[in-house]
Each structure stands twice: as C-alpha cells, then as structure tokens.
Automatic annotation (TrEMBL):
InterPro entries: AMP-binding_CS (IPR020845), AMP-dep_synth/lig_dom (IPR000873), ANL_N_sf (IPR042099), CAT-like_dom_sf (IPR023213), Condensation_dom (IPR001242). This is Condensation domain-containing protein. The lineage of its organism: Eukaryota, Metazoa, Spiralia, Gnathifera, Rotifera. Keywords: Phosphopantetheine, Phosphoprotein. Residues 43-501 form the Condensation domain. One of its GO terms (cellular component) is cytoplasm. One of its GO terms (biological process) is amino acid activation for nonribosomal peptide biosynthetic process.
Length: 727
C-alpha cells in the first residue's frame, strides 16, 4: 500500500501496521527480529546464488567479468594516511563479513556454500595496490583494467574486495617518506568490490563505516544480524502466497519470448561476451518540473510514473507488442535489520503487463501503480524461484527469462556524497566521466538496461541506457534515447498535452518518430504529381514502356544477385503479354491471378497482365489451398500465372470451367529459343528513336486493348480475419 498514503502520519501508521502479525484475525505482538545463528558456514543467499551461476553459465569462457564494481574517489583536500586507511579497511571487513566470505559449490549438499574467513588472515583478506601515474590516459587504463580484469577477485578464497591508491605524479615529485606513506590532494583512491558481496545500497553504508573507522580508529561491533544469518532466515520464509502471485502474474507468458527491439545483430545464442557500453542523457529542468508536478497531481510516485513511460515506450518501440514483461532491479531489504548490512540483497523481478493501446495515459498509469503495489508485497520471492514456477525443464537456465530488457530506478536523497577522513576530503567520481571523449562503460550485465536516476534535493533527473555491444551499436542506442525524449516532450514538455487531455488520449497516439522522420513522411505523402502529355494521366504500363525506351540501360529490377535493365524487362513483358493475348485469348477487363514468391518473374507478370489489358490479382503462396481455391472462384479467372518455385501446376474443375496455370519461366524461355515471332520487337531495335519512338510504342501497345486511365489495374482481397475475404 506504499505511495497510497499522502501524509507522514499515514506512512508512520502504515509501517507500524506492517510490523504486526495476525492469527485468525487476532492482532498479536510486534514481529520479532531475526536472531543470529553464530555460524561461519552455510548456504549462500538466493541473490549470491543467482549472480554466481549467471556469471558462469550466461557468459562465454573468454568474456570479460561483469560483476566488478569499482568506485573511484578523488582526494580534493588534505592527505590520507595509507597505514591508517588500511587499518580502517580491516575494521570494516571485520564488521561486515561478506567482504571476507568464500563461496564454493558443495557437491555433496548440491548447493553453493559460503564460509566466513577469520580475521587472523589480516591484510591478506583483501588486495591492496599502489600505482603512480602522470597522465589522464594512464588513469583511464587503470579504470578499464579494474572493471574488466577477471584475476582481481577469487571467490573460492574469499577475495572479493580490493583497494587501489593511484598517485598522480608531477615532475617535481620526489620519493620522500611522507609521499610514500600518504595519498595527497589530486590523488585517487579506488575501491573495487565483487557484486557477490556488495550492491548499490551498500555503497553509502561502506562510506559511512569507512568514515567512522578512520576518524575513531574503531567501529561499533555490537553483536547484530550478519549477512550469513539473513541467508539462512531467507531459506526458511514461507513464500507460498508470493509464489501464487507470481504464478498468476506470469501465467500464459512465454518464458523465452523475445521482444522485437531494434537489434543491429539479432541474438543467435543466449551466451554473451560481456562487453558493453552506455549512452547517458539528462532532462532539462522544465521537463523535470512538469514531471514532478504531474506525479504530485495524480498522487503517484516518480518511480511509477517513469515505469509507465517505459511501458508505453516499449509498446511503440516493439511495433505494438502489448504483452510486455521486463526486469526491475529491487533492493530487497524488506526488514529493518537488513538496512545496516553490507552485502548482496538485490532481487530481479519480472514486471509483466498486458497493455491496451486504446487506454489513456492516466488509465495506464493507474494500472501500473496497481501492479507496483502488488509486486511490492511479493518482492521477496527470489528470481530463480519465479523462473522455476514457469520453467519446469531444469533448475538452472543459461539466460535471463522474462528479461529482454531491464528497468532500474534510483532515488537519491543526499547531495553530498563526499567522505571526510580526518582533515582529508575524498569525493566520488563517475567512473565513466573521467574520459573527456566519451561517457561509455566497458561491460554490460544485461542486453539492455534502462536506468533513471532522480536526485530529490537538486531536482535533477538523469537517464542512461547500458547495452550489450554483441547486439547493439551506439548509433542505435542514441536514436532510442532521442525517441524516448520525443515521447516525454509530448507528455510533459512546454507544449505538451494538459492533464485533462492525458486522461483521454490513447497511448497508441503517442509518437516516437523523430523530426526528420516526420518530415520524410510528409514528403512521401505529398502524392500530387504533374503528368506529361498535356497533364493527361497515363496507364501504368504506358509510363513503364516510355521510361524503358528513354533509359533502356538503367537497372529496372534488382533481387539478391540478379538484375535486369529496363530494356530487358520490356522485352520479357512483350513476350508474356502477347502470349496472353494470342494464345490464351484474354480480353480487356479479364482478371488474371498471379501465384508467385517475391521474384523477378513476379514483376514481369504484373506488367504483362496490365499490358494485355487485364486486371492483376495477387495470391499468397503461403495461404492454404482452401483459401486459394476460394479466392480463385471469386475472381472467376481462367488463368493463374506461376513459376517453377510456385505451387505444382494443377487443374481445378469448377462448374466445367478449366483453370490453367501458366509457368512464366517456361514461356519466357521458350520464346527466347524461338525468336521468330514477328510481333515481338527486337530488344536492340526499340531503343534508338528517343521520345518520338517512345510515343509511337505507347500507341502501338495501347491499341492492342482499349484501355483508359479508369480501367481497373488490380484487385486485392482482405485478410479474411473477420470472416470471408472481401475484394
């Protein structure tokens, strides 16, 4: 029921009620805190298990590591004692056991086990490194190495954390004792964690603990719940209600369904190399203010509003796919005791919704809000458990079902993330903004990750799209960003729809077309044409013949490795049209069907039918015989043009009327071998008389049949989805 409460008092009451339990509708005591088990070994958490196996199965043996989490700080003031920093890190590691926990698969227990290493290992519990650099390029090389080096962590031996001091040297620097024992202003400190022991929520906890340990030379070691305790309690939870919810939500959804995204390279396998990149963009202040004002007006959270926009964006991006399901990264710290523990808690949740394109934006928003509230109540069910509910073939799959794309929303409530270490101040830097040429990262955990970051204090909203370079090019992702911004401008820009209009406007009317695409459509739809010959409208085949005589050597038809010039096509059209007139005795107004695959013969057949004075009716070779027979009967045609790759020539007797299939390839080949037919002009002799010859040729062929611009050129049948096909 979170976000339905509009006041602080209501939220307090909501939280109090959440901590109460009932049995037989009787209110009992407040929910007891989880106890500690005082153990150093046990099964891992579901979150650790998920990323451990995902890393080993999803990615190729030569892939880059995707779960390194480097965090870079710059010393902006004072100096940091290296010895004191190392002691402080040991204190943090001692208090937060995931930073010294080994993971191994136990064959006997058939599960992944965690073992907490004792503090007697001292500084061997983590890796520490000092480097000296003189240029920005060297710094970028180190950052790339920290993100992509697979040798830095050893899960089996509990090495999941490292610290790297990066000294920025100058020409006047020396190696005195002070310089060797401290990191100074403009130097960098990089902390690198493996995701199995650390998540995004842990970042602020680590910074706070490091500040306390460095400033006080100690930490509060009051015995409290440890991460390994959480892992054991999690396995004992009754998840029956959550399982029922997720089973119902995902009922009927194809677990391996691929969303039609604008891939540059379609995924042919579920494995990835791990290489990735990202494109970042920031909303202008006016747009952010309008978004926040609308969220406040309709009483929804910014997360729910952003999620709704992403649903609608995918609906348009995937050409109207309305049964949408994508992942959402959930912090999963659903109990107060879990808020102070460094570790990996994140759960991946599939958000499935069937959208109706006729829904208004506001109605869609309310549906998404309702989905969010239901998911929140059942968010503790681990992702792999959700998958098993709909995937019975195996316990472990080698990809992420339900996850063609993942959505992440980060709400940041603090404006000052710097850490004070005595007189020194270290300030966090974006790992990808150190490069002044690009803001790209080097790895990607997902095929496509759409992130929204909202800063409450500064009222800033940033977005980024992280993508796998196995599937996408940067140009495609930039275009995707532009499309999303175009849609948001329609909703919340200065000239956007007002609130009343949003309540009524169907979401299918929201466009993601870019300005140049809109202009192109306008140009295409400007169909007014000034005709030659005193502005008289000419028949299609007349215009083709005239162009063929004027430009006989230009390419007319190209298909794969084949091509024909205008002169060659005209020659074959003459052969086939005269065959229809002289051998088949077709008359003006007759309907001739054509049953062909996409081919050069198909184009020749269409032009020949029109030249012979008949109407063209296309048939689909993939349609079932019953439908084809029905359409042929409706047209009352006597002839069907086909080719060798079409259906086998057959005869259909309909009320003593014989239907004849004409093999276009055979006719053309026969006439080429027997070129004595005097009615067919030699190809070379047609094209030497310019415009005058073109006009003469038009009159010659038009005199074969009495045709006008009002004659029917073609007949098209409807799909028949609502009943019998109609012409």
């Amino acid at each position: 029921m979170l976000f339905k409460q509009s006041t602080i008092v209501e939220h307090v009451q909501l939280l109090k009620n959440a901590l109460l339990t009932t049995v037989n509708d009787t209110l009992l005591v407040q929910q007891q805190k989880w106890k500690t088990f005082n153990i150093t070994q046990g099964p891992t958490s579901y979150a650790q298990e998920r990323i451990y196996f995902h890393d080993q199965i999803r990615y190729e043996p030569t892939s880059v590591p995707i779960y390194n989490i480097p965090i870079l700080f710059k010393i902006t003031n004072g100096s940091v004692s290296i010895e004191k920093l190392r002691h402080s890190l040991l204190l943090v590691i001692e208090k937060h056991s995931p930073l010294r926990t080994a993971l191994k698969y136990d064959q006997n227990e058939e599960c992944l086990m965690q073992t907490i290493k004792p503090m007697t290992f001292g500084h061997d519990l983590y890796k520490f490194q000092i480097s000296k650099i003189r240029s920005r390029e060297e710094l970028e090389n180190i950052l790339f190495d920290e993100e992509t080096n697979e040798t830095y962590f050893d899960l089996a031996n509990g090495i999941v954390f490292r610290c790297h001091i990066i000294r920025m040297m100058s020409e006047i620097d020396d190696d005195d004792d002070l310089a060797a024992s401290s990191a100074r202003m403009n130097d960098y400190i990089l902390f690198n964690f493996h995701h199995v022991a650390f998540d995004g929520y842990s970042t602020e906890l680590f910074q706070d603990e490091l500040h306390l340990a460095y400033s006080n030379d100690t930490l509060d070691f009051e015995r409290s719940l440890q991460y390994i305790d959480y892992a054991q309690h999690e396995k004992q939870l009754d998840m029956t209600k959550a399982e029922e919810f997720w089973k119902h939500l995902l009922d009927g959804f194809e677990i391996d369904k691929h969303l039609e995204l604008p891939y540059d390279r379609r995924p042919s396998t579920t494995q990835r190399s791990g290489y990735g990149s990202s494109v970042n963009f920031e909303f202008d202040r006016e747009l952010v203010e309008n978004i926040l004002a609308y969220a406040d007006e309709v009483h929804v959270s910014v997360f729910q509003l952003a999620l709704t926009c992403y649903y609608i964006f995918l609906l348009n991006l995937s050409n109207g796919e309305n049964d949408l399901c994508f992942g959402n990264i959930h912090a999963n710290r659903y109990r107060p005791e879990l808020h102070s523990i460094i570790g990996m808690f994140v759960n991946l949740l599939p958000y499935r919704m069937k959208l109706d394109p006729t829904w208004s934006f506001e109605h869609t928003l309310l549906q998404v809000q309702n989905l969010c509230l239901q998911v929140l109540e059942n968010s503790h069910l681990p992702y792999q458990k959700i998958v098993q509910l709909n995937h019975h073939q195996s316990k472990i799959v080698n990809h992420l079902p339900f996850m063609p794309t993942v959505f992440r929303f980060d709400s940041i409530n603090t404006s000052n993330e710097q850490i004070q270490l005595d007189d020194a101040t270290i300030y966090p830097l974006s790992l990808y903004h150190t490069n002044h040429h690009t803001d790209q990262q080097n790895v990607s955990k997902f095929d496509l990750l759409f992130s929204v970051e909202y800063h409450h204090i500064n009222k800033i909203m940033k977005c980024s799209i992280d993508y796998s370079t196995d599937l996408f090019d940067q140009k495609t992702i930039k275009t995707m960003c532009d499309r999303f911004c175009v849609m948001l401008q329609q909703l919340f820009g200065s000239s956007s729809l007002n609130s009343a209009t949003l309540k009524q406007t169907p979401i299918c009317e929201l466009s993601i077309l870019l300005p140049y695409e809109i202009n192109l459509l306008k140009q295409i739809n400007q169909t007014r044409v000034e005709f030659d010959n005193d502005n008289c409208i000419q028949c299609i085949h007349h215009e083709f013949i005239r162009k063929a005589i004027l430009h006989p050597q230009k390419v007319c038809i190209a298909l794969d490795e084949q091509s024909l010039t205008y002169g060659e096509v005209l020659y074959y059209v003459q052969i086939l049209s005269l065959y229809l007139i002289e051998q088949c005795k077709v008359e003006s107004g007759d309907i001739i069907c054509q049953l062909m695959d996409r081919s050069i013969e198909m184009v020749i057949g269409i032009l020949a039918i029109l030249t012979s004075g008949c109407s063209y009716c296309p048939l689909n070779v993939n349609d079932p015989p019953m439908r084809l027979h029905s359409l042929i009967d409706d047209t009352k045609t006597k002839y069907v043009l086909t080719h060798t790759r079409g259906i086998t020539q057959t005869s259909l007797n309909d009320n003593d009327r014989l239907l004849k299939f004409i093999n276009v390839e055979a006719i053309l080949l026969e006439k080429q071998l027997n070129s004595s037919n005097s009615n067919v002009n030699d190809v070379g002799s047609i094209f030497n008389s310019g415009e005058t010859r073109a006009t003469t040729m038009c009159h010659l062929l038009s005199s074969i049949q009495n045709l006008t611009e009002n004659s029917i050129a073609y007949i098209i049948f409807t799909s028949g989805s609502t009943g019998k096909p109609k012409a």
